Amino acid sequence: MDVSERTMLWLRENWLAARRWLHDRFNWTLPFGDCVVARWEKARELGFGEGTSIYDSSVVIGDVTAGRHTWIGPFTMLDVSGGLTIGDHCSISVGVQSYTHDSVQWAMSSGAAQPERAPAVIGSRCHIGPNVTVSRGVTIDDGCVIGANSLVRTSIPAGSRTHGTPCLVVGAVGGPAGGDAA
């Protein structure tokens, strides 16, 4: 057995041990990267605020800032060459995507036009549901709930409960009964 085969065997054995430990202790079964990369350490390396975490399976391209005590779930795509700011105490659910550039005109012009870019902002105390897409130039103000599978193409006022494609305000957070948007 050569060195690379021994290394792969060692890596596999240790990964399986880590996976068993995580399952036994927390009842978690995670992809390899999320087994070996500490979410809080990755967030610190990205310059995110105290107590914020981001899974290793999350992709970050461009300038992202995140406040304190924010959770960025697995399999998120933050492709934000136009910039993205996320506030404090946010929950960014699994599969959330944000794109702060748009290459439609670039493609249609055979590369003559530049991609359009505009920053996006997610305020503090926001819950962004699973598989939401946040577009360039959008501001989701403080205290909003964005329901699962929504496409956010326009800014959302503070305290709004929203859902849909396109995302529409359907009520206020803590407002009259009518179902949870998330």
Can you describe what's shown?
- The chain is an alpha/beta fold and 182 residues long.
- It has two domains: 1-36; 38-172, UDP N-Acetylglucosamine Acyltransferase, domain 1 (3 Solenoid), CATH 2.160.10.10.
- Helices cover 23% and strands 29% of the residues.
- It has four helices and 16 strands.
- The strands form three sheets. The protein has a seven-stranded mixed β-sheet with strand order 1-3-5-10-13-15-16. Strands 2, 4, 6, 9, 11, 12 and 14 form a seven-stranded parallel β-sheet that branches. A two-stranded antiparallel sheet has the order 7-8.
- It is globular, with a radius of gyration of 19 Å.
Main sheet attributes: strand count, strand direction, barrel closure: 7 strands, mixed
C-alpha-based Rg, rounded: 19 Å
Q: What is the CATH topology assignment of the largest domain?
A: UDP N-Acetylglucosamine Acyltransferase, domain 1
Named at the architecture level, the CATH assignment of the largest domain is 3 Solenoid
Question: How many DSSP helices?
Answer: 4
Shape: globular
Distance between the termini: 52 Å
Q: Going across the major beta sheet, what is the strand order?
A: 1-3-5-10-13-15-16
Q: Number of folding domains?
A: 2
Strand share of the residues?
Answer: 25-35%
Please state the structural category.
alpha/beta
Would you identify the CATH H-level superfamily of the largest domain?
Answer: Hexapeptide repeat proteins
Helix content: 10-25%
Low-confidence parts: 177-182
Strand element count: 16
Topology, pairings included?
Layout (H helix, E strand, L loop, with lengths): L2 H24 L5 H5 L2 H7 L7 E2 L4 E8 L4 E2 L4 E10 L4 E2 L4 E3 L1 E2 L1 H5 L7 E2 L2 E3 L4 E2 L4 E2 L4 E2 L4 E2 L4 E2 L7 E4 L4 E5 L10
Parallel strand pairs: 1-3, 2-4, 3-5, 4-6, 4-9, 5-10, 6-11, 9-12, 10-13, 11-14, 13-15
Antiparallel strand pairs: 7-8, 15-16
